[in-house]
Structures are given as C-alpha cells and as structure tokens.
Structures
1.
Amino acid sequence: MARREDDNFDSGSDAHVARERAAARELRTSRWWQSLIQNAMCQYCGVALDAKTATMDHVLPVSRGGRSTKGNVVPSCKPCNTAKRDQSIL
Ligand SMILES: [Zn+2]
C-alpha cells in the first residue's frame, strides 16, 4: 500500500508553528511592516489602521501551513484578526 504523502509533511506541526511565530515577531519589527502600518486599512473590513491598532494577519494561517512572509501577511484590525483565527477566509 502506498505511503501517504502528507505523513511527514511539516506544515501545521509544532515545529512549523514555532518557527513561523518567531518569524512573524521579526517581520513585525521590520522597516517594511512598520512603514506599511503607518497608514493602512484592514484588509477585511476596511477600517483605517495605524501603528497602534494594526495587527498582522496571516492570509494562510500558520496553523494551516502558512509562512510569515511578505506575501502571506496583511494588516488587519484586531476584531477581524480575532474573528478569523485559523481560517484562511473570513
Ligand atoms: Zn477589520
């Protein structure tokens, strides 16, 4: 019987989550993110955000294999980020 391809797949594993959460902390302090959130909009509800109110949302959640990369994070207000949790769409 064929071995299931995803048996050894790292995504969603504790190691993956720990690594990407750490990467997100670093990305949050990056010049790229800090300038992005100076004058941003929540990607889900459109509310205006600034450096104090913006949160970093993973489009594909880390818990589902998403990475902490520029292509996978968007500014989001806290209520939307909390409501979204580990879904990839709101
Ligand atoms: Zn929002």
2.
Amino acid sequence: MTAFHVGIMSGTSLDGVDIALTSFSPASPRATLIGALCLPLPPDLRSDLLALCQPGADEVRRAGIAGQQWARLAAQGVNQLLQQHGISASQVAAIGSHGQTIRHHPESGFSVQIGAPALLAELCGIDVISDFRSRDLAAGGEGAPLVPAFHAWLLSDPEQSRVLINIGGFANLTLLSGDEQVCGFDSGPGNVLLDYWTQQHTGQLFDADGTWARSGQVIPGLLDRLLQDPYFSRTAPKSTGREYFHPAWLQQHLDGRHDRPADVQATLLELTARTIAEALAGCQSQPEAVYICGGGARNGFLMERLQQLLVPRPVQSTAALGVDPDWMEAMAFAWLAWRCQLRQSGNLPAVTGAKGKRILGAIYPA
Ligand SMILES: Nc1ncnc2c1ncn2[C@@H]1O[C@H](COP(=O)(O)OP(=O)(O)O)[C@@H](O)[C@H]1O
Ligand SMILES: [Mg+2]
C-alpha cells in the first residue's frame, strides 16, 4: 500500500493555507502530486495573524487562539483533500505542517511558527510533524530557507545548472550547479510590499498579473534608496521576513515624497526583480536556466522583467520541470515530514549556515 504524505504551507503572504497530497519514492519519479488545494485565510484570521507579526499587547494569548484557528482550517482542508481523492487517514504516513510564521529572528536564535500541531493531529487522526526550523537554529543556522534541500533532492540535474526562485511574500533562490554544490538564501521581498501597497491603494489583495505596476513608471531616486538597504548587500547565509521589510520600512523611504501610487507599485515590482537578479549575479557560478515558483510566477509583468534582466537565460515557471509552481512549497513540507520519519537530515548547512546536517521537526503522533 502506498504511503502518502501531506504538506501544509501558509506563507508570509498570508493569502491562504496550501495543502498538497504527495507520494515520494527513492526511484523515479521521486515525487508525485496526487492533489492539492488552497484554503484562503478568512479575513479575521488573516488580520489577527498579520497583527501577530509585530510586537503588541496580549500577544501570547492571541497567538494561542490564532494557532488553533489556523489548525482547524488546515484540518478541514486536509480532510477535504483526502475525501476528494478517496484516501483514508490511515493511508497517510504523516502531515508536514509548517504553520504560520509570526516572528523570525535568527540573529537571536529563534523563529516562531504557530499552528497547534497537536490539535491538527487530533482533528486529522494522522501523525503531524511540525516545528521544522528550530533544530537548524539550534545548530547555529538561520532556520531558513528550508525548501532548497527539497529543490536539490528533486530537481538537481547533472546536465543543466539551474536556479529555482520561489517568489512568495519573500523571494528565495536555490542555485543547483549540477554537482553537489547548492547555494540558497532569501534575496529579499517578493510579493510582500507589492501586496501591501495594492491593499492600501486599490482594496484588492494583490496586483493581478502586475497590471497596476505595469501602468506606472519606475521612480529611479526611490528605487536607488530602497536598493541601498544593507540587507541586499549582505552575504549569504541570510533570511528575512516581515519583521524587517514591514510597512514602516517602506513608509520611511516614502516620507516627504509625493509619488503617484502606480509609480510606487512599478518601483516595488522593479525592486523585487532587481534584487533577485543582483542576488543571482553575486553567486559564484551562473546557471543555464531559471525556473520560478510561488505566487510570483503568476505575475506576468514580474516574469517579463525577470526575463529581461536575466537574458539570455530562459525564465520559465517550474511547470516546465513538471512541478506545479503553486504547490512546490507545500510539497517541500510533505517531503521534510518524510525525511524526519526516515530520520534523515532536512537542512542544507551550506544554505542555512548550520554546523551540520540535522533531522528537522517534532512529531505529534496521531
Ligand atoms: N494572478 C496573480 N498575479 C499577481 N500576483 C499573484 C497572482 N496570484 C498570486 N499572486 C501573488 O502571490 C502571492 C502568494 O504567493 P505564495 O507563493 O502563496 O506566497 P506565500 O508562500 O508567501 O504564501 C499573493 O499574495 C500575490 O502577491
Ligand atoms: Mg501562500
């Protein structure tokens, strides 16, 4: 009987809970996606989670409540997905649940994801593996990004050096040179500032296809100011989040300016594209091909700008490699759960900066 693994990812964009039903094998095909779904975060839970990303009163209690709400939503999604595919809980070896990051402070040795894994195990009747970041942090790593290990396992190809760029709230790069070498880090904001600005000025949750950004003009003076942030010139290992690139970070650069909102949007999109391209240019080896995953792959204007900046290398979504760009990260957490059960390492020390390979995750038995 095939053992399935479920992966649950709820990223920094706070758009929804992605759930992927997978099976893995040491032989080809290494990963099969049986099905997936995304449950949008209800607006109240979304705003509670967003508030928890900043220091505030009574936050321990609020985190306790929000974590349970998140787990109930995730459990509903898991049960719905299994039902759709006629798979029972007993056929699922484990759920890998990332949870929702509310604070990421690798410089202080911690990263907090909430999502009540014990409640999730209770509601699904399946082993849940969660808390993937803390062991890497304990070993001196950033605890992030974790997906490069999965990218390397699934998509390394001795015939082609390639870079995988996951553009969620933040953007992270995985450079696969074709040999054992893997380089990976967060280049900076992906969609997070674009979403914030769109929500402020249009009432939409995001700028569909980058149409609004395309209607504006990049403001060179503003772009230069934003590019001067020291994060962009820091060397890897590095990872970042909403505690660093938050609305006040943007507002402080806008203070005293009277730019057209559409031009600011164009500038923010350019910031994402430029910081990705420059991060890649700073890597020791240069890939032959570029593959994009995460919600940013759906932003036609961002994809166009990346293609222009990274020419002559082709820029495509990971669909070209047979992996749906929407589910790559959720699949990665299913894989990390599998690795934990096998008692095999889930981190790449070269990426996170940890002292060595570590088995990631804490197990909450069904
Ligand atoms: N059609 C689209 N056009 C432009 N951007 C999109 C589109 N669909 C999704 N996105 C962007 O992708 C984000 C979600 O990407 P995702 O990979 O789920 O990020 P995260 O892992 O941070 O949750 C949305 O917040 C939005 O900014
Ligand atoms: Mg998401």
